[in-house]
Amino acid sequence: MNNFIEILQVTGAFGIRGYLRVLLFSEDIGRYREVYDADGNRYGFHLVRYVSGNSVVLALEGIDDRTAAESMRGTFFYVRRKDLPKLTESEYYVCDLVGKTIPVCNCDKVCTIVGVHNFGAGDIIELSHDGVTFFVPFTNENFPENCDCITPEAFSEYMN
Q: In this predicted structure, what is the pLDDT of residue 121?
């Protein structure tokens, strides 16, 4: 799945026609015409309605009733990496960050990015250092732009 990027997750059924309530990991789902499951199967879809924030209702090809829609709960769908918009120098895809090492600025300590989360108040980077996992708000204050490191102050504050 290296050539694919996760774009949505089915969170449940919506109505009796087989519509899916999904959580989006993209700002513009309308630019895509097809998604793929983890096995590489292609599905056409269309947007039925926006619910709120990053939750929408989709009609997925081949899902025609509530039972079929319910069976999709928890399923992740992907788009081809080549179909994604080109990134600027300061942009990134979250999946490309996970597993990368990041140094502490002006220091010999190194952390590994374990995950990137957003619980509603902004992105949080989950880091690991010497077997300890900790969370740091993903801000320019903690991760200076174009620096590719975590500040010693953030490391000390959130590591403890």
A: 76
Cβ-proximal residues to 145 (8 Å cutoff; 6+ apart), any chain: 90
79 and 98 share one domain: no
* Integer Cα distance of 93 and 95 in angstroms: 5
Distance in angstroms (rounded) separating the CA atoms of residues 63 and 68: 6
13 and 71: one domain? yes
Could you report the per-residue pLDDT of 75-104, keeping only the tens digit for each? 999 999 888 888 887 777 877 888 899 999
* Residue 112: Cβ within 10 Å count: 14
Rg value, the chain, Cα? 19
* Rounded Cα gap, residues 53 and 142, in angstroms: 26
Global pTM value: 0.70
| 28 in any annotated domain | yes
- Is 118 in the same domain as 146? yes
Give the span between the Cα atoms of 110 and 103, in whole angstroms.
Answer: 4
| Structural domain harbouring 128 | 94-159
Residues 21 and 70 in one domain: yes
- Shared domain for 11 and 73, answered yes or no, is yes
Q: Is the pLDDT of residue 29 over 70?
A: yes
CA angle centred on 124, ends 25 and 75, rounded to 5°: 30
Domain count along the chain: 2
